[in-house]
Amino acid sequence: VQLQASGGGLVEAGGSLRLSCGFSGRTFSSYSMGWFRQAPGKEREFVAGVSGNSKRISYPDSVKGRFTISRDTGKNTVYLQMDSLKPEDTAVYYCAADRMNWPLVLASVDYWGQGTLVTVSS
User: Fold this and answer.
1) Which candidate, 70, 35, 77, places its Cα nearest to that of 55?
2) Core-most of 11, 71, 86, 87, by most CB within 10 Å?
3) pLDDT for 5 beyond 90
């Protein structure tokens, strides 16, 4: 499996960004997909997850109501729409694929994308 993330950048607080992650190499719908992030000096943390059939979606409280995860089976792509961004959202964002587990947890992820940097200025 290969994951290719894109869409990061610099945005002012209160702004929006949409991250994309292209999936290839296996059957996309067989994998739960998600996003994690890692800020400087901090551990990687879960941001959003969506099951293979899109029926289950999960967010931590820190982003609930501001971030939206979705997937497009026809394009083998998962998206993360980020609205009302805050400086504390600044991090490298990684997409993740998990064949067997729900919800996604750091230790069980099977494949990682290369990361895309999101910087939110105050």
Assistant:
1) 70
2) 71
3) yes
